[in-house]
Amino acid sequence: MVPWYCFWYFRDMPADRTLPTPEAEEIVALARDVAQGELAPKAAKAEADAEFPRETFRELGRLGFLGMPYDEELGGGGQPYEVYLQCLEELGGAWASVGVGVSVHVMACYPLASRGTAAQREKWLPELLAGELLGGYCLSEADAGSDPSAMRTRAARSADGGFAVTGSKAWVTHGGDADFYTLFARTSDERSKGISCFLTPGQAEGLTPAPPEHKMGLTGSTTATLDWDGVRLEEDRLIGGEGAGLSIALQALDSGRLGIAAVAVGLAQAALDCAVAYARERQTFGKPVIEHQGLGFLLADMAAAVESARATMLEAARRRDRGLPFGRQASIAKLVATDAAMQVSTDAVQVLGGYGYTKDFPAERYMREAKVMQIFEGTNQIQRMVIARGLARG
Ligand SMILES: Cc1cc2nc3c(=O)[nH]c(=O)nc-3n(C[C@H](O)[C@H](O)[C@H](O)COP(=O)(O)OP(=O)(O)OC[C@H]3O[C@@H](n4cnc5c(N)ncnc54)[C@H](O)[C@@H]3O)c2cc1C
């Protein structure tokens, strides 16, 4: 029997990275220390107990991870996406619920940061980026997931100014635990041009979370429906003007998908490390199983998948950092990285044989966590649709 802790040796072997500056190397090293020192030891128990790690997010906020890719003059960390994503990879590989939570928070800040007026940014953004507050992103509804323009939640203008929001937003990550929500709601019946974006407080009167969903994985991350019953919002909580909501949501998702790709790469790397550590120790027919070609080749394919996914994600990130269009590349990165995470984590279970199917090792958890990465922030069918549409346009 391989000692249960053997995979930690290999988690201590950093992934091979090329980072743009010595400062970036230090930042990613810090993310790795936090990931391995603070997150990894807590992940398995917290996931088993479905415990939402609110304090962990505060700590990550204090360290600057919750506002990292936003400009310093806005109160962010001023880091390029290339660096932010590699930090996210480290955090997500140690604890996927936390990596996903950071990515969702960063995406929830995007509409205000990119489309808010100077007055709106000044009023709210520093607090959001400082990381004391945690965000949620309310786009999906029970009958509007892949097709958000089918949403029905309505923000009606009130006679005394402002809006009253009524409806139900499904699948909200941090639903009921967040301090603010970036909400997309209908302000007119026009299908895609009738949607607007709002920054809403988490504790608004009339806003009620349903009990959290019981999920197969990512159980440390709360996912809940939020019911909005005439929730009053002041006029200045409208972000980017009436009718601009869907295009803001889709732009935010381009960046958010890179975050999910990063968490998926981290997860795939963790699954690979676990499998390699086990295969070096476990002996059959008088030698370590990694030395049997059949298994060595499987591990080689896993390593190739992890490195290809990382390269694809970083190419998209570098385009974003240079101000080039990156939407198609973000969809490709999300597709490639999450499919890699699913394949590599499934293969990791196989490499561990019977032990892979037990909860004594993290491989089965990685496999359950990888599955949802292929579903949220646009299923991988929707990523293919985005890529194909881009190809058709030429
Ligand atoms: C754990 C978790 C957390 C989430 N967090 C958030 C969040 O924070 N905020 C938020 O807004 N949403 C969130 N979501 C929702 C998520 O983004 C949606 O579940 C996802 O977009 C799919 O929508 P759906 O579930 O309604 O599936 P559907 O849209 O009903 O799709 C069903 C199936 O049909 C396929 N399909 C649909 N349309 C097409 C098409 N045109 N061509 C080919 N195939 C198609 C889909 O790929 C899927 O396989 C979360 C979901 C989960 C599970």
CATH architecture of the largest domain: Up-down Bundle
CATH class of the largest domain: Mainly Alpha
Q: Helix/strand/pairing class, anyone? A: alpha+beta
Name the helix and strand elements from N-terminus to C-terminus, one letter apiece: HHHHHHEEEEEEEEHEEHHHH
The helix content, as a percent range, equals 40-55%
What Rg, in angstroms, do the CA atoms define?
21 Å
Report the sheet-strand fraction.
5-15%
Instruction: Give a list of the ligands.
Output: flavin-adenine dinucleotide
The fold-level CATH name of the largest domain is Butyryl-CoA Dehydrogenase, subunit A, domain 3
How would the global form be characterised?
Answer: globular
Instruction: Domain count, please report it.
Output: 3
Annotation field: number of helices: 11
Q: On the 0-100 scale, what is the average pLDDT?
A: 95
- The total of beta strands comes to 10
Low-confidence stretches: 1-10
Question: What kind of sheet is the major sheet?
Answer: 4 strands, mixed
Could you state the CATH homologous superfamily of the largest domain?
A: Butyryl-CoA Dehydrogenase, subunit A, domain 3
What distance separates the N and C termini?
A: 55 Å
Order of strands in the sheet with the most strands?
1-4-5-8
What does this structure look like?
The chain has helices at residues 6-11, 22-48, 54-62, 81-94, 96-115, 118-130, 245-281, 293-321, 327-351, 363-373, 380-393; strands at residues 135-138, 154-157, 163-173, 180-186, 195-201, 207-209, 223-233, 238-239, 283-284, 287-288. It has 3 domains: 6-130, Butyryl-Coa Dehydrogenase, subunit A, domain 1 (Orthogonal Bundle); 135-245, Butyryl-CoA Dehydrogenase, subunit A, domain 2 (Beta Barrel); 247-393, Butyryl-CoA Dehydrogenase, subunit A, domain 3 (Up-down Bundle). Helix 5 packs antiparallel against helix 6, helix 5 runs antiparallel to helix 7 and helix 8 (293-321) runs antiparallel to helix 9. The strands form 3 sheets. The protein has a 4-stranded mixed β-sheet with strand order 1-4-5-8. Strands 2-3-7-6 form a 4-stranded antiparallel β-sheet, with no helix packed on it. A two-stranded antiparallel ribbon has the order 9-10. Strand 4 (180-186) and strand 5 form a beta hairpin. It is α+β, with helices and mostly antiparallel strands and 394 residues long. It contains 11 helices and 10 strands. Bound molecules: flavin-adenine dinucleotide.
